[in-house]
Amino acid sequence: MTEWKRYRKHAITEMIPWTPDVSMDAITVGVEDRADHPRDGDMVARNPANPSDMWLVAKDFFEANYVSADDR
Description:
Elements: E1 14-17, E2 27-28, E3 43-47, E4 50-57, H1 59-65
Parallel strand pairs: 2-4
Antiparallel strand pairs: 1-3, 3-4
């Protein structure tokens, strides 16, 4: 098996907070999150180059891995 390597993203990901009024019809939810998501604190991400490509980011993963690109 090939050895795992670590990679850092250098792109910006657009996100909005998930709320109950957000339609989940076009948002991908990973298999491991389907049982108990979406929920408060989760975020909806989209690909800036293809805004129809959207996915759910669980609150814990978001908080551990993302910071605002707009904060100075």
